[in-house]
């Protein structure tokens, strides 16, 4: 999307607030015209003081009153203009944020799998800010700037075309001096932003990995790497600020020289009676008013460029294809019986890298299935397909004999309870976290679910009990406790089928026993898929699927698979027999 298309699109958002925009233009015109009438009145006032003893006090009083009124009106409309542009900018960004959030919710999971979270967050926060700043500054500065330049030029031409010529010659000089400096400083600012980004990333990594940093005694190296980046940022920051600080004084110098030249030429013109002293005063003020917006517009251009780049990043997400919507006649899956059929399923994340090549299986209600296999074997992929986070390339997956592609995604997912290794809790009370899948749950139901999940006793010991607030990342809860809460969450919804991912990381023995008990209780009577890491879970499963390179290469009970002496037996012998 090029710059023009981007701005057209951005303005269609702002265009919804056309009424405000029209009022903003009217306010800009009035405030600028008031600021231009001011110097004319000042000139006229000066001309009322013709010489010693020849001062027209009555006229001066009248002119000064009018001048005061004009300036008050100008300020009032200037203030209204700022408020209106604020409103347009914030409403536009409000709409874009809403649309982006909505979009992130309906994008296929492949988007989230393939894009770093930080990048999506940055589009949400930094890019939105850049757009809002661009609109805010761009709109008012460009509008008032352009009207001021045109207005001041007209008034200057009216007073003295010759002096106007001098101003017109100096304006480009001032503009190019400013541009020369800002181009250099912008380049440095960009480099500074890149270094800053790197530094942020580094600090984020180091804070996130503090445990590992300390465990591997990486602190000193980490500090010296930080020091290097910090030093680079300091140097670049100083240089960019140095260049940035040159722009204003340099252009002011050019403007002051012009001002002096005009003053000299103007004084001669006054002596020669071609202009009055008052007109010269007006002209000098106009020449200042004329030069000012050039600098401001140059400054705003950078902001507009950054707003353009940010809008493009936002629009590129908004333009992505959302998840294929449900079929118009898609069925609502009520309470499933729990029969699942995979029939000749083929799937690949990337067309040129086939993963699941031909998978068929019939799972009867209440079957406990353990999925085992090396890392990257495709265990999570199987889950992704069951939940329709991804759709199969060919073949079908059926639930109670119905193709899952013919079922609404919401009702399909409601039939599965999922407990993953990476627990997800959000910033709310423990009660709200448990009730996340059933908003209207009563307190009794929440407590009952927590009890079934063996979470009640630890929750009760917390000072605030069920009202304990969870901070974003789980706060002070242990990993095992977090998992118990997610189990309680699933218990509350009471789905007919389950997908569980057993934690591989070490959890204290007592919590681990609790989790196992909770898992066992949850699994009772339900069709369940467990990505299994514990021997007990695997042994107790009705069916073990051994996956390798995306395919199920062996399936059967523990005894059957051991007896066949294949991959599973090898895994069992290498991992579990020594325990
Ligand atoms: N979103 C994705 N896009 C592309 N390739 C992917 C994606 N997710 C997984 N893969 C690839 O598919 C293969 C199977 O991955 P999967 O996550 O299913 O393995 P897994 O058995 O669950 O592994 P682990 O035990 O480590 O979690 C891997 O080679 C992985 O790199």
Features:
579 residues, alpha/beta, ABC transporter transmembrane region fold, 4-stranded antiparallel β-sheet, 10 strands, binds adenosine-5'-triphosphate
Distance between the termini: 60 Å
- The helix/strand order is HHHHHHHHHEEEHEEHEHHHHEHEHEEHH
Bound small-molecule species: adenosine-5'-triphosphate
Number of strands: 10
Reported by name, the CATH topology of one domain is ABC transporter transmembrane region fold
Going by helix content, strand content and strand pairing, the class is: alpha/beta
Largest sheet: 6 strands, mixed
Helix fraction by DSSP (H/I, runs of at least 4): 55-70%
InterPro entries: AAA+_ATPase, ABC1_TM_dom, ABC1_TM_sf, ABC_transporter-like_ATP-bd, P-loop_NTPase, Type_1_exporter
Membrane topology: Multi-pass membrane protein
Pfam family, one: ABC_tran
Keywords: ATP-binding, Membrane, Nucleotide-binding, Transmembrane, Transmembrane helix
């Amino acid at each position: 999307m090029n710059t023009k298309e981007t701005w057209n699109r951005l303005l269609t958002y702002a265009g919804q607030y056309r009424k405000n925009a029209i009022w903003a233009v009217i306010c800009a015109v009035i405030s600028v015209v008031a600021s231009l009438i001011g110097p004319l009145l000042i000139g006229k006032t000066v001309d009322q003081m013709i010489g010693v003893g020849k001062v027209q006090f009555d006229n001066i009083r009248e002119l000064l009153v009018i001048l005061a009124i004009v300036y008050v009106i100008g300020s009032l409309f200037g203030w209204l203009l700022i408020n209106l542009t604020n409103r347009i900018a914030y409403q536009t960004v409000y709409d874009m944020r809403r649309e982006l959030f909505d979009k992130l919710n309906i994008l296929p999971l492949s988007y989230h799998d393939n894009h770093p979270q930080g990048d999506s967050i940055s589009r949400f926060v930094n890019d939105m800010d850049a757009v809002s700043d661009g609109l805010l500054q761009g709109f008012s500065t460009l509008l008032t700037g352009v009207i001021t330049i045109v207005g001041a030029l007209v008034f200057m031409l009216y007073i003295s075309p010759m002096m106007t010529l001098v101003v017109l010659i100096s304006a480009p000089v001032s503009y190019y001096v400013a541009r020369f400096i800002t181009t250099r400083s912008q380049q440095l600012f960009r480099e500074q932003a890149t270094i800053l980004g790197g530094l942020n990333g580094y600090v984020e990594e180091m804070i996130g990995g503090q445990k590992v940093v300390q465990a591997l005694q990486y602190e000193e190296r980490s500090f010296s790497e930080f020091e290097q980046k910090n030093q680079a940022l300091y140097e670049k920051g100083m240089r960019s600020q140095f260049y940035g600080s040159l722009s204003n004084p340099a252009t002011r110098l050019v403007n002051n020289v012009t001002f002096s030249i005009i003053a000299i030429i103007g004084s001669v013109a006054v002596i020669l009676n071609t202009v009055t002293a008052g007109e010269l005063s007006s002209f000098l003020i106009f020449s200042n008013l004329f030069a000012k917006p050039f600098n401001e517009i140059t400054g705003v251009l950078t902001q507009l460029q950054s707003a353009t780049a940010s809008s493009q990043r936002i629009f590129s997400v908004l333009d992505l294809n959302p998840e294929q919507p449900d079929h118009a006649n898609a069925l609502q899956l009520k309470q499933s019986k729990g029969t699942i059929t995979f029939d000749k399923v083929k799937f690949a994340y990337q067309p040129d890298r086939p993963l699941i090549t031909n998978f068929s299986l019939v799972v009867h209600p209440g079957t406990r299935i353990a999925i085992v296999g090396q890392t990257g074997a495709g265990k999570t992929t199987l889950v992704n397909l069951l939940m329709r986070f991804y759709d199969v390339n060919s073949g079908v997956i059926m639930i109670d004999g119905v193709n899952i592609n013919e079922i609404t995604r919401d009702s399909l997912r409601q039939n599965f309870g999922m407990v993953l290794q990476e627990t997800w809790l959000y910033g709310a009370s423990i009660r709200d976290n448990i009730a996340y899948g059933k908003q209207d749950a009563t307190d009794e139901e929440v407590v009952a679910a927590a009890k079934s999940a063996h979470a009640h006793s630890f929750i009760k010991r917390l000072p605030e009990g069920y009202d304990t607030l969870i901070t974003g990342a789980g706060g002070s809860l242990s990993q095992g406790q977090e998992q118990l809460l997610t189990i309680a969450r699933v218990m509350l919804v009471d789905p007919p089928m389950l997908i569980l991912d057993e934690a591989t990381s070490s959890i204290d023995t007592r919590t681990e026993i609790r989790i196992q008990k909770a898992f066992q209780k949850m699994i009772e009577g339900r069709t369940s898929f467990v990505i299994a890491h514990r021997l007990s879970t695997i042994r107790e499963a009705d069916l073990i699927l051994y996956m390798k390179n995306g395919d199920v290469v062996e399936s059967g009970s523990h005894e059957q698979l051991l007896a066949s002496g294949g991959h599973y037996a090898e895994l069992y012998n290498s991992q579990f027999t020594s325990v």
